[in-house]
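USER:
Class, as today's exercise, take the chain set out below, and explain how the chain folds.
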Amino acid sequence: MMDAEATRHGAVETSAEGAVYAKFLKAHEGEFDGIILCLPNFGDENGAAAAFKNANVPILLHAYPDELDKMAPELRRDAFCGKISISDVFKQYGIKFTSLKPHTSSPGSDAFARQIDYFDRMCRVVGAMKSMTIGNIGARVTAFKTVRIDEITLQRHGINVETYDLSDIFAQMKDLKAGGDAYKSKANLLKNYTGFSCVPEAAFDNLTRLAVVLDNMVEENALDAISIRCWMELQKQMGISPCVLLSEMNNRLIPAACENDIGNAAAMYALSKASGEASACLDWNNNYGDDEDKCILFHCGPIPQSLMTAKGMVVDHSILMNSLGEGCSYGCNVGRIKPMNFTFGSLLTDEGKIRALLGEGEFKDDPIAQDFFGCPGTAYIPNLQDVLQKVVYGGYRHHVSVTPGHIIKPLREALEYYLGYVID
C-alpha cells in the first residue's frame, strides 16, 4: 500500500490517482508476487485500469459485502456491482485477474482467509515458474528417451536449463578434502537424516562428497531444482546411487529429480511452491490387484523424509545389482510413503507449448509386499484408468510428481491462466 498521503483519501479513485499507484508498483517491482485490489465501495474502473495495466502479477479482486440493514444511499457499498464493472474493464484491457467465491467477503471472515490462502499459493507458483533455473547433471540416459524435452520452449516460458558434465562432478568429488568443515557437516547431517548402518565406509565417503558438490553447485549457480543422470556411471565409477541425497535435498524443498527428468523437476518445483511442502518424483509402477482406482507409486529412494512413514534405511540397489553385481550401488533410501492426501503433476513440451497433467489422490495404508524394493506407496486416484489414458495418449512420462495436500485449484489457475500452459 502507498502512504495514505499519496492520494486525496488514501485510495485510488481517478485515472490520475491510478497513475500514481502504477508508479508506486514500478518502484517496488520484484518485491511482490501478487496484489489484492480491495473494493470497500463500488470503486472506479478507470482508476483501477490505470493502476494495474502494467502490474504483471496476479491481481485478486476483493469486494466488501453490504449489510441488509444498511442499504440507504449514504450507507450501502455497492462493491458487489463494482467488482463486476472492474472485471469487465480489466477484460477489455487484457489485464489478468482472479475472482474467488464468494463474490463478496468481509476481511475478517473465514471466507476471506481461505481466499488469501488460495491466492498466496497461486502467486507463489506464478512467481516461481516465471523465472526458474534447473541444473541438469549428466547427459540423458540413452534408454530414457521418455524424458526428452525442448529447452527452448522452457526458456520462452521463463524456465532456464543449465547443464553440467558428470566428469566434472567426479573431479570435484575427488578434490574435496575429507577433513574439511563442509564434508564433516554433511556427513553428520546424513547420518542423522536416515539409517546408514548397511553402507560401507567407502560408499558413505563418496555419498558425502557428492552431497557437498551438489550443494555447492546449487548455491553457486542459484539453481531452483536439479535433475541428474543417476545410473550407470555413478555406480560403476563411484559405487553409489544418489537416491538418498536427492531425498535429503527434496526434504529441504530443493526439488531433485532422477533420470534427467527435467520436466518433472519443473513440475516438482511448481507443486512444492503451491503446497509449501516437499515434493517427490515417482514411477507409475504397478497395478494394485484388481482395484482399478489404485496403483503403486514408487521410486528407489529419492522420496523426502517428510513424505515417509519413518526414517529410511540406505541399502544397495536391488535392481541394478542384477547387472552390476552386489556392492556397486549403495544409496537407495528404502521405506514407505505415509498415508496422506496428495496432488500430482507431470510436465512436458509439445510443439512450442508446455503441457501439464494435474490431479489429486490419496496415499492409503494398504499393504505392500515386504520384499517390494525402494520406497512405495499405495495411491488411490479417482478414475485412475481415465488418468492413465491421458498419460498414455498424451505422451507423458513414466514419472509423476507429488506433494501433500489437495491444492490443484490454485496450481491449475497459476499454470493455465497466468502462465499459459495447456492442462490435460
Observations:
- The chain is about 40% helix and 20% strand.
- The radius of gyration is 25 Å.
